[in-house]
Amino acid sequence: MDGAEALDATQEECMSSSLDAHLGSECGSDPIGRQVADTIRQLCAASIKLRNTIISGGVEARSGGGDTNAGGDVQKPLDIVADQMFLDAAKASAIAVYGSEEQDAAVMIDPAAPLALAIDPLDGSSNIDTNVSIGTIFSLLPVGEEHRSDPTSALLQPGNRQLAAGFFIYGPQLLLVLSVGKGTRVFLFSPSFGGFVEHIGSVAIPEETSEFATNAANYRHWDPQIRSYIDDCLAGEEGPRERNFNMRWIASMVADCYRIFVRGGIFLYLGDGRKGYTEGRLRLVYEANPVAFCVEQAGGAATDGSSRILDIVPRDLHARTPLVFGSKHEVDRVARYVADPSALTDRSPLFGKRSLFRT
Ligand SMILES: O=P(O)(O)OC[C@H]1O[C@](O)(COP(=O)(O)O)[C@@H](O)[C@@H]1O
Ligand SMILES: [Mg+2]
Ligand SMILES: [Mg+2]
After folding, report:
1. What residues act catalytically?
2. Substitution site in 268, 281, 289, 318 for ligand 1 pocket (most atoms within 8 Å of beta carbon)
3. Residue 126 CB partners (closer than 8 Å, separation 6+)
4. Which of 55, 91, 127, 307 yields a CA-CA distance of 20 to 30 A from 328?
């Protein structure tokens, strides 16, 4: 086989495992399915543009102060650039309304269109200048007849109504984690192919884990139940869990989440005692819901500490929610601590009051 033939064979392989082929077969041939597929293609094109901006390292790829968004975070130039790119993608798709972290209110695009897009255009903004993975998180919801008089209300449906959800990771590789409700798959951007190809078929999050992800600097602000849960993990082999735990915290949820897809783990960002953090930090509509959808579709679980994330009816576009997700048995365990820490049968009373951070 000469070089050209080898290249053709690779191109052929890429075509058959391409995101395009996947969308064609998984989204269905009805009009809504086709519009969902087309929207995901537009989002992919925007993600490639954003990736090119990020790797260029130019001014617009940097941090630097700006205005404050609805969530109270300072907008970085890259937050704004990303928002504009995805808004343009939404305008080229069958999107009625665009709800973004970076816009105070939902943006009406075409009130007659069938889909609503909720988006965190740039997740992990604090990592922009540190060359650590950042991402984009998105959620596609149906705009039904009941939303016609006010299409923005479609963004306030519970996450169990999502038609598709996913996130891009701008890291060493540009990856797309995607679910259209038939499992969760991972696609890799191939510069030579010029598009996304399947990277990991169906993802299955291991049910058990010995790795947690949380911002432990907030330990003193947490509720006692959450401190107990983490204390018990930290007690390792000598503690009630009788095994050692590892900790990771990237502070880009997309990256922490992807690691959990690959090797299991649990992510916790619960409410805490800091001003403005009673509901945690993460936003329900465009952060927790799409992640929870992908996590559940991969066999994991996602709660607000006790209740399923996907069943919560959002109060408003920027509402926050406490968030716990990842390996199912561990997420269930946190719910048991939250309900009643003393009821855990395998938990020695010795560890009931002890705090390893404080001794
Ligand atoms: O800095 P903290 O409090 O640890 O928060 C980190 C979390 O905040 C986020 O960066 C919030 O997302 P944004 O960057 O989109 O605001 C998550 O990706 C991450 O998990
Ligand atoms: Mg975010
Ligand atoms: Mg963001």
Report:
1. 73, 79, 101-102, 120, 122-123, 287
2. 281
3. 251
4. 127
Burial of 200 (0-12, 13-18, 19+ CB in 10 A): middle
ipTM of the prediction: 0.98
Q: Residue 318 and residue 312: Cα distance in Å, rounded?
A: 14
Q: For residues 221 and 213, is the Cβ–Cβ distance under 8 A?
A: no
- Do 202 and 299 meet the contact criterion of CB atoms below 8 Å apart? no
pLDDT in tens, 51-82: 999 999 876 666 666 777 777 777 889 999 99
If asked whether residues 96 and 181 sit together in one domain, one would say yes
Residue 269: which CATH number?
Answer: 3.40.190.80
Candidates 130, 134, 253, 274: which one to mutate for ligand 1, based on the most atoms within 8 Å of Cβ? Answer: 253
Range of the domain at 74: 3-202
Q: Is 27 left (phi over 0), alpha (psi -120 to 50) or beta?
A: alpha
